[in-house]
Amino acid sequence: MDPEKLLEKMKNRTPDVLGHDEFLKSAILLPLIEKEGEVHVLFEVRSHMLRQQPGEICFPGGKIDAQDQTEQAAAVRETIEELGIKESQLSTILPLDYLVSPFGMIVYSFVGVIDSKATFVPNSSEVDSVFTVPLSFFLKNNPQKYRINFEIQPEENFPYDLIAGGENYNWRARQMDENFYIYEDKVIWGLTAKVLLHFIEIIR
Fold first, then answer.
1. Predicted structure pTM score
2. Is residue 82 within 8 Å of residue 127, measured between CB atoms?
3. For residue 181, how far is the Cα from the chain centroid?
4. Per-residue b/e over 85-113, b at no fewer than 16 CB within 10 Å?
5. Is there a domain that residue 2 lies in?
6. Residue 1: pLDDT over 80
7. Cα separation of 191 and 101, whole Å?
8. How do residues 103-122 score in pLDDT, each as one tens digit?
9. DSSP three-state, residue 6
10. Residue 195: helix, strand or coil by DSSP?
């Protein structure tokens, strides 16, 4: 077969994350809102009734559904649903970097502005409460950083005989930094802190 003809199939292909079909895809929005003449970042406290991460602090967001035309549309939909606001009360939505997590998830993150006159009616099944933190706090205070080390444990029937080095193969251990922002009695960490730090680094 002519290799040129073989590659014809790839000419209109758009590259993506390898294995992206197997990843859970989510979208989140980092909301900014003006309060008392100062820019604040808005956060949610997850409902204590949720099975995953109850009571933790996060940004509005969730799984991208089939009806969402774009990742941004998903972030907007989730924000409206969770905060109980109107789409017209969201503006200047811009993309941040997306994150491919080691746990099989791609997270598309955005930043946007919520109208300062918006009234919040949080969806109680997902959101326990909302609060804001002055953006200046994050600009003045770096997060506390801690490192997580991942151990590699191949399953019992792993075919060591098929790889160079066998059972003595020199696996590359993976490490991940976790950031913690502590504001009054609130602890902001995990994905939320990672996206927040990314945003702070951009605007700095």
1. 0.89
2. yes
3. 16
4. beeebbeebeebebbeeeeeebbbbbbbb
5. no
6. no
7. 9
8. 789 999 999 999 999 999 99
9. helix
10. helix
Length of the chain (residues): 204
Contacts (Cβ under 8 Å, ≥6 apart) of 199? 30, 96, 111
Burial of 4 per CB tally in 10 Å (0-12, 13-18, 19+): exposed
Here the CATH number for the domain that contains residue 34 is 3.90.79.10
> Cα separation of 78 and 11, whole Å?
35
User: How many Cβ atoms sit within 10 Å of the Cβ of residue 150?
Assistant: 10
| Residue keyed to tokens 């409460």 | 129
Q: Which domain holds residue 149?
A: 21-203
In a domain, 9, yes or no: no
Quick one: pLDDT at residue 41? 98
H or E segment to which residue 96 belongs: none
Q: In angstroms, rounded to a whole number, what is the distance separating the alpha carbons of residues 195 and 29?
A: 10
